[in-house]
Amino acid sequence: MTKLQAVLKRKNIQISAKRYGIDAMGAMAQGLFCSLLIGTIINTVGTQFQIDFLTRVVATLGSGEHQISYTVGGLASAMSGPAMAIAIGYALQAPPLVLFSLTAVGFASNILGGAGGPLAVLFIAIIAAEVGKAVSKETKIDLLVTPLVTIFVGVGLSAWWAPAIGGAAAWVGELIRWATVLQPFWMGILVSVVIGIALTLPISSAAICTALTLTGLAGGAAVAGCCANMVGFAVMSFRENGWGGLVSQGIGTSMLQMPNIVKNPKIWLPAILTSAITGPLATCVFHLEMNDPSGGVASGMGTCGFVGQIGVYAGWVNDVALGVKEAITAFDWAGLILISFLLPAVLCWAFGLFFRKIGWIGEGDLTLPQ
pLDDT, tens digit, for every residue of 119-139? Predict the structure, then answer.
């Protein structure tokens, strides 16, 4: 056992929840953001503002019925599988030959995983990267061995596992979406609270939403929970952190409060209570849906770079184009603004004020670490 541990240490293979569940998953979300989500944003901006070079076809593959045309945004979105796999490899500190070989692995696992492709990419890219690291620089023909092993393991597992993993993820996501439509009040609370908590924890809420394809009303509830935490903490801690804290948490991440939450978990209650209110308001009153073409990643982003709001808007545009929605109304905009910004700010501030008065939140408990 000691010998195996020595080999794993030498190869920088750390089998741990942190490396796989936090580092790799967080990196996967970044890869998805830099491909699929950015592509969606580019397409939405190009269409809405009629920018020619963003809507013009720049590449065409195939012919006849099978011809596929790509815009700039379309090309970015098409590379989501490779981008996720390479990001995961980077988080696992894979050597160059392994990292570059993950391009094929990500493409195969994402395509074969279908709607649940991102979850398939996560599992398979981790295994392929670690196996690739294990054989890296162990032979004199490393230039051949390392890419061959990484690609064969990754593509082989993709053919074997990806459809089942993707199918399971899609089924769970469909179950959540169905339950949210059936019970919008209770599921609005559950999804909003759980995803809001995931956003603040050092894990990736965007990756979770993507893996489960949290769209529709469930996606709207997820947006509400994320905004409750981000905007909520930003406003509630304004007296301690000022404008810098407002920006870094409000359009950055509420994860910055994790060290303070560990010291005093009660400071999280205002944001959690806020998400329990805004979630069902999003599902039952405003019928806020996340139908952006990125497949759910924006549902777990909240106000981070306003990606959640851009995603909701992109979904509106897409629904109008498909004829599912007649038009974007003033009520739609009111719901988005209230759920994303105004209600989280007011409710979390009020709850925070109450908890300060009863002594559950003390002076300096919300001060961000320097």
Answer: 899 999 999 999 999 999 999
